[in-house]
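Q: Entry one of two.
A:
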Amino acid sequence: MKCGKMKLGLGTLAVVLGLTLFVGATPAGRYLWSLGEVFFGKAGQFASEQVSPEVEVERLAKEIGKLDGDIRANNNLLAREAVALDTLNEEIDARRKKVEEDQADLERLTKLVDSTSGKTISLGGKNLTRDQVKARAAQAEELLEAEEAALKAKEELRDKKKATVDAARGKIEAMKEQQAKLTAELETMKTELQKVREAQAQSSSVPVDDSRLSEIKDSFKSLHARINVMKKEAELQGDVANASQAEVDQALKAEKALEKARERFTKKTAETDK
């Protein structure tokens, strides 16, 4: 079983490596890879456009909240670097003190050599030859040079680390400022979105089918026009009583249609008021 799993794993690895080589080493592979990048980029853009503004506001609020964790993590790193900087400063103080002590020893040996004319020189309760004292002075000089070089290196390291710590502290402060700015800006956008939604709710209305009412009104206009024409014709003929029976019938028919239209309109208005 283990052998089979190992063969399967090696086979999968070979396929992955083969695809990688195909993608990276052939024009067709590079074309397919580039096409895939475009496709996934378009798909991501389409998906983001389908998200409602309310959901996007909520997502951004959570992302801004996550910055607190990032800031804490950066502060932890900064604290460690600050402690390391303090330790380095302590080492520099100790090494500077050692350099000062070595300088004092070298100065004392140099003065002994220059101020003593005899062949022997008393040093630390011992009588040493002049050459022995000179040798000690030379050793002290070499030690002092080494200590000064080490001190200089430590100070340069301290300066670089301090600059790094100061830069990191500045970036963290900038992150805090940006977080506060983004939070305020998101709240403003949230308020604006609420106003837009309220305006949309106020402007939207329940669709009402008033086509029948429009038809009735049009019938009213048409009927009024017909009656006016009939009256005008009757006046021109002398008297409406002298009109033909057909015209009288037409007038009665028109009047009945008008009454029917009035009843329909009254009924429709009552239903609309409910």
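Q: Entry two of two.
A:
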Amino acid sequence: MHKFTSSALLALGLAGSAFAQEPLTLQQTIDRVVAHYPTLDAAQAEIEAARARTTQVASARLPQVGAGASYNYIAPRPYVEFSLPGFSSSFYETSSNVYQAGLNARQLLTDFGQTDAMIKLARNGEMSAADALEVARTQLAYAAIQSFYGVILLRESVNVSDDEIKALDEALRISNRKLSGGTATKFDVLTTQVRLSNAQNVKTDTQAALEKQEAQLRQLLGLGPEVTLALVGEFPSPGELPQLNAAIAAGLENRPEMKVARDAAHSADLQLDIAAKANRPVLAAAASGGVQDGQLPNLYENRGYINAGVSVSVPLFTGQRITGQRAEARAGQRAAAARVADLDRRIATEVSDAFADLRAAVARLQTADVLVDQSAEALALARSRYTNGVITNFELLDAQSAARNAALARLQARYNWTLARQSLARASGEPAKP
């Protein structure tokens, strides 16, 4: 596997037209993806919006202060007329032009838990937004892991194809030399050329797949197409299988999707609590003060005033609005509980499936290791027999091809085992890590 690292760095050094980039390990790749991907910025904005909603709801506990001014024109003006013996007169109760300016304030004294319940709901929304951010971060981290190892697999596959093409080029050279010497036929040369063309086609397809995989990884990393990817890493060595029951229990406890579902269930409980308190009284104090004219005894003098009091509001009949709110909240509570139960089953199934895939990947990897050893031994025997003139060049090429196919099969098996291990870790709610 160290061949991959050195060849990748050599390719980076030769790419004079591309921008240089520091080699990235898997952990550095994960850190960069989760630090800069736009989806996480959107999820972070949702958290800030949830905090703002909590601030809005909590503002009901604080005094509400406002300022106001008014102008009124009154015509005809009401007046009082009176008369005494030998004398009569009248006076106006208000002026034609009335001005008023002042401040007003209102303070909620208690609504018997209604505001407190709404604040709890808003704060639970903050927790739900934070858990949704963790879901997005986990998805991106595991996508980066899969893409990283995909690039490693395809680069190694290209190297194997290069080795096969080099061996076939040498075989073609030998066949042409033997044809010139009369010890081989044109059929030998054509057969070798066909094998070489097939090997070149396989490399072309593998190279195209590699370019697509690198483009996907660049997208996750936020790099342009002109940047040459330099990756440092190899497939990890297989370890012991975890306990299935422990993995399922960890998934039910730690999966961020389960946390989001439980947040939604708690929100449904809080909605029902809000609906249950919707018909409670509201006790508030209010005060206003300022200056105005149009008051007796001097209608045209600006005079200060103060008005203060306490009020209580009790819902008596709401047209079944509260009844509907409670029914809706109870239905939402049942739906949220059902979604938690459904996710519980799906997580258990996902963990079981990932465990089965990992167990099968271990078995396939062991078989691939045996196959590589057997094909290497067979190739050594074929070379010895070819040197002694016992077998033909085609039989040697078959042995070489079998050895390279075995190497590719082991690469694929190690890749599959790595992804299976990561799938089980993700299903179990483990943080993404190399």
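A: Comment on entry two: Residues 114-181 form the longest helix (68 residues). The longest strand covers residues 97-110.
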